[in-house]
Amino acid sequence: MSINAHEGQDQVSILSFQIGWEEFCIDLYQVKEIIQAGLIRKLPKSLGYIDGIYNYRGEIIHVINLKKKLNLDQYVLYHSKYSTFEEDSSTSKNFIIILKMDNDLIGFYTDSILSIDHVDPTQIVGLSPIFQTSVAMEFINGIINFEERPRVMLDLSKIFSDVDKFRIQQDLSSLT
Fold it and tell me: Residue 28, Cβ neighbours under 10 Å: how many?
């Protein structure tokens, strides 16, 4: 979904979430459900950014670790004593955002859910050529200018290459 897809709308509903020290948002229209993370089973020989599989209402889904997929763990330059995010697994409540992509359900593992907001489509701006981010540009749908700080709006439907989709389908078919 591109920025132009929101033209003519009065408001866009977005879901804001946190991965590590970064805050992102996605179009709420893409979200099927948000659940608190439960038992995720590891799969041998799966892609490095796949945490495993999860039984979602009787359907087996892959759970994608967005921190690994977006290479956020490599960018610790800004994670310092000034960072507001502290990773403490004993008190954190992690969530899985479930999306329907290409007729399959996929879970995206996040550290926390921040909010659901309604923004004017004019608040969603494109990237300037000098914009710096650790996230690959093809995954970014725009920037939303919130009062406290801008947030990158992701397009999770673009996060998989054709090879990734094929490997995920192979994993799912080997389970049945």
Answer: 15
